[in-house]
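Key result, reporting period 2: structure in, sequence out.
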């Protein structure tokens, strides 16, 4: 790569900063969220010292953001994929939110992010991107689908100059500074809230079906729905935000707070705020009204689970639901989950690694290497011959995402479950984007295996994983 090019990671870092400035100007409460997040992280480091950076350096955690946007069609999703490729961001994971919530959330999603470990370390900016399933008859009748397709098909979210610069950036691995500035200007502007009047009747027709559908198919452009900082103690943040008089959603989504290692992802948000927008009425008059679709999300990331670990996690979630429904209806989900976690999930990283429930990278420790040709991962960990470093979960949970969406909706909308839903999976969405969507579990497994291969060469022995990758040894 020419030294005159601004590399992808720098473009990505600048893009994240520009979007944060844009979103902070549009939703001032976001700036409060960022300030409180910084306070929380500083307090956590003061309490925990070096252990505070177990799941990422403080520089990375402080800079880390994930955004969320929504688009209306396959064409728009393919175009946004080209834009993000220009920042070194690739589609990872498939999420179907249509059945992840009791509310009407008619979208399928992926997340665009870096995939190489060194790129994630430089800047891990990720954007959770949802596409409206406007052909799903459970939500949209034929006339509504037809009008959605006409409305969405007539708008242009991403101009040709932006797309051309994105393609060149992806191909070259960066852009000359002048082109880089232009690319950043155009990309940021494409997610700026439009001031064009909204068709009042059409928007509220969609809102009766789904607030999410109205936010995608009832407005002339896309925009940032939330921009999420990362904290090291989300429970502390929830309390601090509440103490400042900011209304939070009812609970923290995802795993409970407990004494063992954090896994996957915990999320919460402040409630969506009324935003003043201009509406055009059937008589042609334009008057001010309010929308409530954007909110301030925050996240705390844990260790990535293997396939075996995810199976266990799903069992734990199902057990929490069962107990709340059948045995403990008066207790909160978080209270029940804490009991279930303590009963069923190992409380140490060593045990999570030895049982193959979480992903780690492994490096040489200070222990004495046994004089054998093969040894188990557990033996080597317990003897200190090797040290496990947790791999941070970089992705998302459909149920948690849907829970955040649901907590911020004005109403649950409507759906007709007598109708057949449109089938979507990772393969179909890959075809829509024109890029193969990566499976996150495979990415983590490759990272773990590379570290094991290097250790085997260094120690000159075979390391028996005994399901440490979540599969048969």
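The corresponding designed sequence is given below.
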């Amino acid at each position: 790569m020419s030294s005159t090019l601004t590399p992808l990671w720098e473009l990505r870092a600048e893009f994240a900063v520009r979007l944060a400035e844009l979103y902070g100007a549009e939703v001032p409460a976001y700036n409060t969220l960022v300030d409180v997040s910084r306070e929380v992280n500083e307090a956590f480091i003061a309490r925990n010292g070096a252990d505070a950076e177990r799941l990422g350096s403080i520089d990375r955690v402080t800079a880390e953001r994930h955004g969320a946007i929504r688009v209306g069609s396959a064409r728009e999703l393919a175009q946004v994929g080209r834009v993000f490729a220009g920042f070194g961001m690739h589609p990872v994971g498939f999420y179907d939110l249509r059945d992840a919530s009791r509310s009407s959330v008619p979208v399928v999603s992926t997340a665009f992010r870096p995939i190489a470990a060194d790129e994630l370390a430089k800047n891990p900016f990720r954007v959770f991107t949802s596409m409206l399933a406007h052909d799903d008859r459970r939500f949209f009748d034929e006339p509504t689908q037809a009008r959605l397709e006409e409305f969405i098909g007539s708008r242009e979210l991403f101009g040709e100059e932006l797309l051309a610069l994105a393609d060149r950036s992806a191909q070259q691995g960066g852009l000359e500074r002048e082109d880089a500035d232009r690319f950043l200007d155009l990309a940021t502007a494409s997610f700026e809230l439009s001031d064009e009047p909204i068709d009042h009747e059409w928007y509220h027709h969609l809102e009766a079906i789904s607030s999410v559908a109205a936010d995608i198919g009832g407005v002339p452009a896309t925009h940032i729905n939330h921009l999420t900082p990362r904290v090291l103690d989300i429970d502390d943040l929830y309390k601090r935000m509440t103490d400042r008089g900011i209304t939070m959603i009812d609970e923290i989504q995802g795993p409970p707070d407990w004494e063992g290692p954090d896994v996957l992802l915990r999320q919460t948000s402040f409630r969506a705020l009324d935003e003043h927008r201009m509406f055009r009425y059937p008589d042609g008059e334009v008057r001010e009204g309010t929308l409530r679709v954007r909110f301030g999300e925050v996240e705390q990331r844990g260790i990535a689970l293997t396939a075996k670990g995810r199976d266990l996690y799903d069992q734990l979630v199902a057990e929490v639901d069962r107990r709340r429904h059948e045995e403990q209806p008066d207790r909160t989900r978080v209270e029940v989950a804490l009991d279930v976690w303590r009963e069923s999930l190992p409380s140490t990283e060593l045990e999570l690694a030895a049982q193959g429930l979480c992903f780690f990278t492994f490096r040489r420790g200070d222990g004495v290497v046994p004089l054998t040709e093969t040894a188990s991962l557990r033996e080597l960990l317990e003897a200190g011959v090797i040290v496990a470093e947790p791999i941070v979960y970089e992705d998302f949970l459909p149920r948690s995402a849907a829970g955040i969406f649901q907590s911020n909706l004005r109403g649950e909308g409507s759906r007709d479950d007598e109708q057949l839903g449109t089938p979507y999976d990772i393969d179909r969405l890959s075809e829509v984007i024109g890029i193969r969507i990566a499976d996150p579990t495979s990415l983590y497994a490759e990272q773990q295996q590379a570290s094991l291969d290097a250790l085997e060469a260094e120690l000159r022995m075979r390391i028996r994983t005994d399901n440490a990758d979540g599969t048969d040894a």
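Residues 305-390+439-473 form one domain. The longest strand covers residues 65-71. This case is discussed further under Risks and Mitigation.
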